[in-house]
Specification:
The complex is a heterodimer of chains A (319) and B (395).
Chain A: H1 2-29, H2 46-55, H3 62-74, H4 88-123, H5 128-142, H6 145-159, H7 175-213, H8 216-223, H9 228-257, H10 260-266, H11 271-280, H12 284-312
Helix pairs in contact in A: 1-12, 4-5, 4-7, 4-9, 4-12, 5-7, 6-7, 6-10, 7-9, 8-9, 9-12, 10-11, 11-12
Chain B: H1 4-10, E1 13-15, H2 21-28, E2 33-40, E3 44-49, E4 63-67, H3 72-80, E5 87-89, H4 95-102, E6 107-112, E7 117-122, H5 148-156, H6 160-168, E8 173-174, H7 196-205, E9 209-210, E10 216-218, E11 221-222, E12 224-230, H8 233-248, E13 252-258, H9 260-263, E14 281-286, H10 294-297, H11 323-334, H12 338-354, E15 358-363, E16 366-371, E17 374-375, E18 392-393
Helix pairs in contact in B: 3-4, 5-7, 6-8, 11-12
Classes of the chains: A mainly alpha (319), B alpha+beta (395).
């Protein structure tokens, strides 16, 4: 097992290097130059601009810049945002709590919806409950989040006037009041994202469970006299969860990068909106940091998913 | 004058009362509000009262918070419909939507006339030929827009009253002039007209014959053009109205929209900014930031032509060159007689219009949304926050 882990970790090094090389080259080839903005500012003499370019090494060849970027990234230095003029790491730290809170909760909500509904639907396929659940699941994942988001705003903010639709990351209140305000403003974006994810996952859980529940060993378990509850939870769900785990594990990196569209609608200051504005303003260090961390997380969670398989299914051995 | 500053504020809503980064630094000045104590790039700016402000008991409020991100419609909604914020500005939103939001009852639209003009520019250089690594180089000539007949026909194909009625409403008045305000500088003789028939006649007379595909051509040059603007619902609707009329006159238009933060940036390395003008025609609003037109009218002076040499900082985006205009502009710079000076500007505007250098579409007043209880005075010329220290909220 530890040998397997070591091997996987070693393989991920060239993978990540490859990814970063591709990202870096594409960004270096893209048109636009962050420091050209300074050309319009009469207070910035051309020499200062030239100095800045040298300081950030923008005039060096791509290969040199890439090596410099990789070495500083390894040392934990994420670089300096050209546009916001602060460190990339502090820019990301400012936004990370909000992103993790909103997207993490949404992911959790999605799971909480999908697991019980999906399992119950599969246990009683084509029952009335299953039909209703299927209908809602299809509605849920065929409506894009920008549409449900606006619908929620229309209903809860405008018609009922219950919830604010603009998300404020720093509420000045403290204690319970803070928690209350936070919950009130977060409920809509979380619900929009969570229900969307939940809808798709419900279908996934349902089909996974349905596949397992027909197998002979489930009948055996039942004929042993095990209660329905134990049969489902211990024998069916545990086996059915394997594909679900992959799906969830691969979605977790997305929690870090945020949801671009939903963040835009509710003005959630998350990583997604940071990424978009960085792309539009050629803020290469920020784009690199976000996209690279995202790919690192994808690689990492792939590994975690593989490890969890082993725990869920002891037949899988790591070699 | 460019729109760049505006696009920052474009997206902003205000809580209590709130300017955004750029605006706060430049217009309110550091001494009106005490030092900004929290800035999160792209998200929020906060400020609080400066206890040593030179006017006693001013400003009337203690803290200020500005929120960025999002779009103009949701900014207007947060003020007028849900009342989460107190002030939103630069609302280029269809009037129909503004009216509906106003029914929310928590705020109202404030419209103050200024000199801003939404207009279509004709490119006098060739955007499709690269000379010394530069498109729309001054060394080239546009293949068909250099023909006055084509520009004249284009002017007849912009249905300004439809644009006003269907899109801008109170927030954009159809006009024939580039220079609309103050009153004494406005030309009284210019007229605009929407007539597909006349446009067809002019093009026929100038020898632009319809080909088998219905598109006019002359000497192997087809009347196919790319029409660029920034991404904004009002602008894309205007583009559609013009495109439709142009098709009836045998001109094919391809619509292009560029994200505002790129289009209005001054990135010399990006072809998609408005000063690069890498398309045949483009449309945006030039803001007039002072009632005197001297700075505003420099946009047609030949020495201001935007090019690679001046890193596209030149203010003449159309690259139109006209000796008579240059002479008039030079004269206006030294003219001390108020009446004669005004006459010079009227003449300059007429020259621009007669030559079809630009096609004015709508004269746009400044549009803001203000919470019902917030009291403030606005200007159509200055920054939104010129007298921030006098803003107050009625109990």
């Amino acid at each position: 097992m530890s040998k397997y882990l070591l091997r996987r970790l070693l393989i991920s090094v060239p993978t990540l290097l490859g990814i970063s090389l591709v990202l870096f080259t594409i960004l270096a080839l893209a048109p636009g130059d962050p420091f050209e903005e300074l050309a319009t500012n009469p207070n910035v003499p051309p020499e200062v601009r030239a100095n800045l370019r040298t300081q950030f090494g923008l005039d060096d060849p791509i290969a040199v810049r890439y090596v410099r970027w990789v070495t500083s990234m390894v040392k934990g230095d994420w670089g300096f945002s050209f546009v916001s003029r602060i460190d990339v790491s502090s820019l990301i730290w400012q936004r990370l709590p909000t992103t993790l809170f909103v997207l993490g909760t949404a992911q959790l909500l999605g799971l909480l919806v999908a697991l019980p509904i999906g399992i119950y639907s599969a246990v009683r396929p084509y029952s009335f409950f299953d039909q209703i659940a299927t209908t809602f699941a299809f509605i849920g994942f065929s409506l894009p989040t920008f549409f449900t988001g606006l619908l929620f705003i229309l209903f809860f903010s405008i018609y009922l006037d219950w919830l604010p639709f603009i998300y404020r990351a720093d509420i000045s209140a403290t204690g319970w009041r803070w928690a209350w305000e936070m919950a009130r403003q977060a409920i809509m974006p979380i619900a929009v994202l969570g229900l969307f994810q939940g809808a798709a996952m419900t279908r996934f859980v349902r089909s996974a469970v349905l596949e397992v529940i027909r197998l002979d060993y489930v009948n055996t378990a039942r004929s042993k006299g095990l209660s329905e509850r134990v049969t489902i939870v211990k024998h069916v769900v545990r086996n059915a969860l394997i594909p679900v785990v992959t799906l969830v594990a691969l979605q977790i990196p997305g929690v870090f990068t945020g949801a671009v569209i939903t963040e835009q609608i509710f003005r959630v200051p998350g990583i997604g909106s940071l990424l978009i504005s960085a792309i539009l303003s050629n803020d290469t260090p920020v784009i690199m940091a976000i996209t690279f961390v995202f790919s690192a997380l994808v690689v990492l969670f792939n590994l975690i998913a593989d490890l969890v398989y082993g725990w869920l299914d002891p037949r899988i051995s790591f070699r | 004058m460019d729109n760049a500053g505006q696009t920052i504020s474009f997206d902003a809503v205000a809580r209590r009362i709130v300017p955004e980064t750029g605006a706060l630094a430049s217009s309110a000045g550091p001494n009106r509000i005490k030092i900004i104590y929290a800035v999160k790039p792209g998200d929020i700016v906060k400020g609080e009262l400066n206890p040593t402000y030179h006017l006693p008991n001013r400003p009337y409020f203690d803290t200020i918070e500005m929120k960025g991100g999002g779009d103009a419609v949701s900014a207007a909604r947060a003020v007028m419909q849900t009342g989460e914020y107190d002030y939103a500005w630069n609302l280029q939103v269809e009037d129909e939507i503004l009216k509906r939001l106003e029914q929310g009852g928590r705020g109202k639209v404030d419209i103050v006339a200024g000199g801003d003009i939404e207009h279509i520019q004709c490119n006098f250089t060739d955007p499709w030929k690269e000379v010394d690594g530069e498109r729309s180089s001054l060394k080239t000539k546009h293949p068909f827009l250099s023909d006055p007949a084509v520009r004249q026909a284009l002017g007849l194909l912009v249905d300004r009253s439809s644009v006003q009625e269907q899109i801008y409403g109170r927030t954009g008045i159809s006009t024939a002039n580039f220079l609309n305000a103050p009153e004494r500088f406005r030309s009284k003789t210019t007229k605009w007209e929407f007539s597909v028939d006349k446009a067809n006649q002019i093009l026929d007379a100038a020898g632009w014959k319809r080909g088998s595909d219905g598109i006019r051509e002359k000497g192997g040059v087809k009347l196919k053009m790319v029409y660029q603007s920034s991404t904004n619902a009002s602008r894309q609707k205007t583009q559609a109205i013009v495109k439709q009329a142009a098709a009836k006159a045998g001109i094919e238009m391809e619509i292009k929209s560029v994200v505002a933060s790129v289009y209005f940036s001054s990135d010399a390395a990006n072809l998609d900014t408005y000063p690069h003008f890498s398309t045949d025609i483009q449309m945006y609003t030039t803001t007039m930031t002072q009632p005197d037109p001297e700075l505003f009218m420099i946009q047609f002076a030949s020495w201001e032509a935007a090019s690679k040499d001046n890193k596209w900082q030149g203010r003449n985006i159309t690259r139109w060159k006209n000796e008579e205009y240059d002479k008039l502009y030079r004269a206006s710079e030294g003219e001390l007689d108020v009446v004669k000076r005004a006459a010079l500007y009227v003449k300059m505007n007429e020259l621009v219009i007669q030559n079809g250098v630009v096609i004015p579409v709508v004269w746009r007043p400044r549009v803001r949304a203000i919470a019902s209880k917030l009291r403030l005075e606005q200007s159509g010329w200055d920054s939104d926050f010129w007298n921030l220290s006098h803003w107050y909220r009625e109990a």
